[in-house]
Amino acid sequence: MSGVQTNIKAKAHVYGDHIDTDRIIPGKYTKTLDLSTLANHVLEDLDPNFKKIVQQGDILVAGINFGCGSSREQAPLALKQAGISVIIARDFARIFFRNAINIGIPVLEITDHNIQKGAELDVNLKTGIVKDLSTGITYKATKLPDIMIDILNEGGLVNYLTKHGNYSL
């Protein structure tokens, strides 16, 4: 399996509502194809310390309308390259949601959560169950359709379509 783990246990980085794609990755960095450059500047306008504190596999948690703004695919790519393993939000801008799945980063919607910065989370992508190990609270995310889990398991949409004979490079 080249895609994501279905069980993820990691630390949460928590941010607020209406975080747009310009805050995720500033526009001046979107002209590069170098993914490490994107990762080095992810969330720098929102949290200048993010790049210093994020660890491989960490979880990003946000409020409402995460990923609003432009439809740039670099936003989820930058988060994935920086090490984020899953993004949880109350809800997502639809284009960001789809771009994230397409590049192979899981996104889960939990409409009413109280996850705090630094919480240790245990996420099951197949069931949509998110356990906050810091508080003992269990959340039920909107379950991802099986086809989206399959796309994530293949590492993104291009890999999925290539494997299943619907696309060739």
Structure description:
This protein has 169 residues and is an alpha/beta fold. The protein has helices spanning 21-24, 35-41, 50-53, 74-82, 94-103, 146-153, 157-163; strands at 7-14, 59-62, 86-89, 107-109, 120-124, 129-132, 137-140. The protein has a 7-stranded mixed β-sheet. Strand 2 (59-62), helix 4 (74-82) and strand 3 form a beta-alpha-beta unit. It starts with 6 loop residues before the first strand and ends in a 6-residue tail after the last helix. The model has no long low-confidence stretch (mean pLDDT 93).
Brief summary of the model shown:
The protein is of the alpha/beta class. Helices cover 29% and strands 19% of the residues.
- In what range is the share of β-strand residues? 15-25%
Strand tally: 7
**What is the N-to-C succession of helices and strands?**
EHHHEHEHEEEEHH
Based on CA atoms alone, the radius of gyration comes out at 15 Å
Q: Which regions have little confidence, pLDDT < 50, spanning 5+ residues?
A: none
Q: Which structural class best describes the helix and strand composition?
A: alpha/beta
The end-to-end span amounts to 20 Å
Fraction of residues in H or I helices: 25-40%
Largest sheet: 7 strands, mixed
Outline type:
globular
